[in-house]
């Protein structure tokens, strides 16, 4: 994890030829990326002129004479070594540095590297103009350096072609027909031309040309990057008035086609989203929603009550299109859905009337060592559009087996046979050594020419055993079509809750949640439980005594309270909402408790008619306040002390900087006066 997204040693040339390993195939370079990691994480092109002038000032021994050159040279070198990650010795040392070892993606040290080279380039340009340095001295190292770079590319070009083909990318077989090589070379020649022009008297024109060449050089990289070709569009979301009082959810996270759930995009488009890309996700929120840092919601943790409390009204998922294939296809990623007698016993997937005559089921068992051959561990119930049901049993030893079947301690004790292996993976145990784990496949024949509306997997009444479902696919052998069942197909099977609105684009389907709670609401009662108990109550939908919970009628607090005489407040209105401010109007004859669907993060303060009131952490993670009877204006404001401290420090820094400038000017005037008097 620490060395993820580091610049590979074999890809260092992208600092000089940024698209050498491909980029965006829709651009003029015409080749998709085929290097390691993501180009977004490891790209740091600064242009040829800054590199040349940075080298000029370093090689002219100014690194010894000028402390600024020395500082920025060390910064550039140090950050360059850091961004290589485990490609150098420094990574192992830095891993033990407190604070730094909490970060990943060494490639991001390109920020410091790029800044350092830019500063050195500026210093080098000034030195080149002011000094008597000869052009031939620059060309003596620049031309050989360029020849070496090009020679390395030419020598390894066949390997580049091979690596590109492995990733399904086609690049020109003739190197100099490859724009990722010729365009940087063009700017090298233009930069050499600028060097000659700078030595003539028309320096103003030369500097303007220098700026233009640099802008076009940088644009040859930045202008053709993904922001131009994959800019996220919010046209796929049909906005309604309700979306101002609710949130959207995309279980697949920011990877959902045509919908980008990144914080900056949400701000620009004014979208309120339950999930999205968030590397700094709060621990409690992660537990509450079951969301990963990528924004993907773990389907094993998807919970309708949680979505209701967070005002998740509109859900967006990918349309599961069929794929043409001569044989049955399966998804690249596992469904990772678990069934057991003690937890979840069945799961249903909606199928869009696909006519399949085969079903493929990939799964594995845990804690199944005592099970014998021919034990029915589960059933696959295929429901057709005419409401008829066809059932296929999942048999131990035939269709599925223990995942660690070949581990030494399991193999000697397991009571059933090993089913047909679908995929194997290698694991290492400190005691048992290296062994292979497996997932298993079973293919079942179905009634042909019948439209399938749903698939239900039902676990048998066998305690302790866990069935993990990895893949499910349907296949139409006549039309050569595969339907790859996705985890999102299991989310919206309850017609009393979900309405399939319409297909907004060919890639996206929208569902509306009929049981969603508003952003602001009031319960009839408030109950006290511990934090962990509250989380369990919400997710299971039942109280510790077994009674069902109606989240519209009750709110849960981990703090003891004494809200006597409260009633449900039905006159609540979210008047306005902006970044850091929420305004609510309340009009009720008796005291009430008001819940606001907003994360109770430190820094939030609540005011009733301008007077601060206490915020209670409600329903594990939300905000709630006690509201007296009568008409009131309620305001939630984000006023973190850390922000105020930052502003104070900023102005102190500005003041110190201005004071230092004034002091320097005073010293210069003093010295000038002294010299003049002498």
Automatic annotation (TrEMBL):
InterPro entries assigned to the protein according to its UniProt record, in alphabetical order: Uncharacterised_YfhO (IPR018580)
Record field: transmembrane: 12-36, 42-60, 69-90, 110-129, 141-157, 177-198, 205-225, 641-664
This protein's UniProt keywords: Membrane, Transmembrane, Transmembrane helix
Entry keyword Glycoprotein: no
Native species: Paenibacillus elgii
PANTHER family noted in UniProt: INTEGRAL MEMBRANE PROTEIN, INTEGRAL MEMBRANE PROTEIN-RELATED
Annotated protein name in UniProt: YfhO family protein
Species lineage: Bacteria, Bacillati, Bacillota, Bacilli, Bacillales
């Amino acid at each position: 994890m620490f060395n993820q997204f580091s610049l590979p040693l074999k890809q260092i040339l992208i600092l000089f030829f940024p698209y050498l390993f491909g980029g965006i195939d829709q651009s003029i370079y015409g080749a998709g990326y085929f290097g390691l990691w993501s180009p977004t994480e490891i790209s740091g092109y600064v242009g040829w002129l800054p590199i040349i002038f940075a080298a000029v000032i370093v090689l002219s021994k100014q690194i010894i004479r000028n402390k600024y050159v020395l500082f920025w040279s060390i910064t550039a070198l140090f950050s360059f070594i850091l961004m290589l990650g485990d490609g150098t010795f420094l990574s192992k040392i830095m891993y033990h540095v407190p604070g730094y070892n909490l970060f990943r993606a060494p490639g991001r040290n390109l920020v410091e590297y790029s800044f350092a080279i830019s500063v050195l380039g500026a210093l080098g340009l000034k030195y080149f103009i002011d000094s008597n340095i000869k052009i031939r001295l620059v060309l003596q190292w620049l031309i050989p350096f360029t020849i070496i770079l090009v020679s390395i590319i030419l020598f390894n070009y066949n390997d580049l072609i091979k690596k590109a083909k492995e990733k399904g990318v086609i690049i020109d077989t003739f190197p100099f027909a490859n724009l990722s090589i010729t365009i940087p070379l063009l700017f090298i020649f233009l930069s050499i031309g600028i060097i000659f022009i700078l030595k003539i008297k028309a320096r103003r024109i030369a500097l303007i040309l220098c700026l233009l060449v640099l802008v076009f050089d940088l644009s040859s990289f930045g202008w053709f990057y993904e922001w131009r070709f994959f800019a996220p569009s919010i046209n796929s979301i049909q906005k309604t008035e309700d979306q101002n009082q609710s949130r959207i959810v995309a279980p697949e996270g920011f990877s959902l086609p045509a919908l980008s759930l990144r914080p900056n995009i949400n701000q620009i488009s004014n979208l309120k989203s339950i999930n999205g890309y968030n590397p700094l996700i709060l621990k409690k929120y992660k537990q509450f929603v079951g969301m990963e840092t990528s924004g993907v919601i773990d389907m094993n943790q998807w919970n309708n009550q949680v979505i209701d409390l967070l005002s998740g009204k509109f859900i967006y998922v990918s349309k599961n299109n069929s794929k043409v294939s001569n044989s049955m296809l399966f998804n690249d990623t596992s469904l990772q859905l678990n069934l057991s007698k003690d937890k979840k016993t069945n799961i249903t997937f909606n199928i869009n009337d696909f006519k399949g005559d085969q079903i493929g089921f990939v799964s594995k068992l845990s804690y199944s060592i005592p099970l014998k051959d021919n034990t029915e561990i589960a059933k696959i119930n295929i429901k057709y559009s005419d409401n008829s049901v066809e059932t296929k049993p999942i048999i131990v030893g035939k269709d599925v087996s223990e995942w660690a079947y070949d581990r030494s301690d399991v193999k000697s004790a397991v009571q059933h046979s090993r089913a047909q292996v679908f995929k194997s993976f290698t694991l290492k145990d400190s005691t048992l050594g290296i062994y292979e784990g497996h997932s298993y496949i079973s293919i079942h024949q179905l009634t042909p020419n019948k439209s399938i509306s749903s698939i239900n997997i039902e676990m048998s009444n066998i305690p302790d055993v866990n069935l993990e479902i990895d893949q499910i696919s349907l296949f139409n052998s006549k039309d050569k079509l595969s339907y790859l069942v996705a985890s999102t197909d299991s989310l919206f099977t309850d017609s009393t809750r979900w309405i399939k609105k319409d297909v907004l684009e060919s890639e996206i389907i929208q569902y509306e949640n009929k049981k969603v709670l508003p952003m602001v609401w009031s319960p009839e009662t408030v109950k006290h439980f511990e934090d962990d108990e509250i989380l369990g109550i919400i997710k299971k939908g039942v109280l510790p005594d077994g009674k069902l919970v109606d989240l519209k009628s009750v709110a849960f607090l981990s703090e003891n309270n004494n809200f006597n005489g409260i009633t449900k407040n039905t006159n609540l209105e979210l008047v306005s909402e902006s970044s850091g401010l929420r305004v609510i109007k309340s009009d009720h004859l008796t005291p009430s408790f008001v819940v606001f669907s907003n994360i109770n993060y430190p820094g939030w303060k609540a005011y009733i008619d301008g007077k601060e009131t206490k915020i209670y952490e409600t329903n594990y993670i939300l905000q709630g306040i006690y509201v007296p009877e009568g008409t009131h204006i309620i305001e939630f404001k984000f006023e973190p002390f850390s922000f105020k401290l930052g502003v104070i420090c900023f102005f102190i820094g500005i003041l110190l900087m201005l004071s230092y400038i004034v002091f320097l000017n005073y010293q210069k005037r003093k010295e000038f006066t002294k010299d003049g008097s002498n």
